[in-house]
């Protein structure tokens, strides 16, 4: 089981402002959302001038000394474990894997071990120290219930380059997704900013203050069922926000099958898990210049779910 270590940060406030806003500016590069910062304050993880503050709205004055304490997974404590995943391709710098549904990518709150990372360091112990704390080799993620292709950095030089390639949209990522509802056309693009839902912390949503996100959908087939129209689509990412495809579908009044978070009561029962699969990856190898393209067909559970819908 993974151990955790404390991270401490101290700094002086530059101006008079709400505590949560000051911390968001300081911690956004650490991956903290506004809601996570609010929780950190309420859980007594923040002191101002040596006093614990539990109100996010507390007014900080210029020059106040702010100290923050939080925990991360201690990479040195990660245990190699036999976690299932398929290796599609590899060289000394890059590994292409296919992740099964139900596997969390890296350790975190509620998932201290038995993650993809535990399986990766079991097969590739050399990736320890490659990339971020607690998530060696990971340059992008798939949700727990999403299956399919992922890129993993095997070397430090590859990690830095791959992160930039994904950021600069130099990696083509295509998914298969099925949803209940009437699609607006055979091809449609959704450009809508995404951030954590202010009312439901476990969910993301389209909000004006969110981060830019764009997804293009191409309808492959639509069937008319007793539940309404259901479409299976190609989903192509231009950005990579958390839950992006599922959030953008919900924004268009389309409900992902098997999804209890972004679907509705009907769509949630139409697949054994979220009907979302990373099916295609394409990019140019950053060191050899080779054009790489990978395709991982839909797994059996999603194929069977779609076949049942087609014969209704």
How does this model look, in words?
It is a single chain. With 312 residues, this protein is of the alpha+beta class. The chain has helices at residues 19-27, 34-42, 116-123, 156-167, 244-251, 265-268, 300-310; strands at 4-12, 17-18, 46-48, 51-52, 59-60, 65-73, 86-90, 94-99, 147-153, 172-180, 187-191, 194-196, 204-206, 214-225, 228-237, 255-256, 276-284, 291-295. The chain folds into three domains: 4-73, Roll (Structural Genomics Hypothetical 15.5 Kd Protein In mrcA-pckA Intergenic Region, Chain A); 75-168, Pseudouridine synthase, CATH 3.30.2350.10; 174-278 and 304-310, Pseudouridine synthase (2-Layer Sandwich). 20% of the residues lie in helices and 33% in strands. β17 and β18 (291-295) form a beta hairpin. The radius of gyration is 21 Å and the shape is globular.
Helix content: 10-25%
* CATH architecture group name of the largest domain: 2-Layer Sandwich
**Rg over alpha carbons:** 21 Å
CATH homologous superfamily label of the largest domain: Pseudouridine synthase
CATH class of the largest domain: Alpha Beta
| Overall mean confidence score, pLDDT | 90
Q: What is the N-to-C succession of helices and strands?
A: EEHHEEEEEEHEHEEEEEEHEHEEH
List keywords for this structure.
single chain, 312 residues, alpha+beta, Structural Genomics Hypothetical 15.5 Kd Protein In mrcA-pckA Intergenic Region, Chain A, Pseudouridine synthase, 3 domains, ten-stranded mixed beta sheet, four-stranded antiparallel beta sheet, 7 helices, 18 strands, 20% helix, globular
């Amino acid at each position: 089981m993974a151990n955790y270590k404390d991270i401490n940060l101290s700094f002086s406030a530059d101006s008079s402002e709400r505590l949560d806003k000051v911390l968001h500016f300081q911690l956004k590069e650490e991956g903290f959302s506004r809601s996570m910062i609010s929780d950190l304050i309420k859980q007594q993880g923040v002191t101002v001038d040596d006093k614990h503050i539990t109100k996010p709205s507390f007014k900080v004055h210029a020059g106040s000394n702010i100290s923050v304490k939080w925990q991360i997974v201690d990479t040195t404590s990660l245990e190699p474990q036999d976690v299932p995943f398929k290796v599609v391709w590899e060289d000394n710098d890059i590994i292409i894997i296919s992740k099964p549904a139900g596997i969390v990518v890296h350790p975190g709150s509620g998932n201290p071990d038995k993650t993809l990372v535990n399986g990766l360091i079991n097969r590739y112990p050399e990736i320890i120290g490659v990339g971020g704390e607690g998530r060696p080799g990971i340059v992008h993620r798939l949700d727990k219930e999403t299956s399919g292709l992922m890129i993993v950095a095997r070397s430090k030089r590859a990690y830095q380059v791959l992160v930039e390639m994904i950021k600069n949209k130099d990696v083509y990522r295509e998914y298969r997704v099925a949803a209940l509802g009437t699609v607006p056309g055979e091809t449609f693009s959704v450009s809508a900013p995404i951030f954590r839902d202010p009312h439901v912390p476990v969910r993301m949503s389209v909000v004006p203050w969110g981060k830019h996100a764009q997804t293009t959908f191409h309808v492959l087939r639509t069937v008319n069922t007793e539940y309404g129209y259901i479409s299976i689509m190609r989903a192509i990412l231009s950005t990579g926000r958390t839950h992006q495809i599922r959030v953008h579908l919900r924004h268009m009044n389309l409900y992902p099958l098997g999804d209890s978070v972004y679907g509705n009561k009907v769509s949630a029962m139409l697949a054994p898990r979220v009907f979302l699969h990373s099916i295609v990856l394409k990019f140019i190898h950053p060191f050899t210049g080779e054009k790489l393209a990978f395709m991982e067909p839909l797994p059996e559970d999603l194929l069977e779910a779609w076949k049942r819908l087609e014969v209704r």
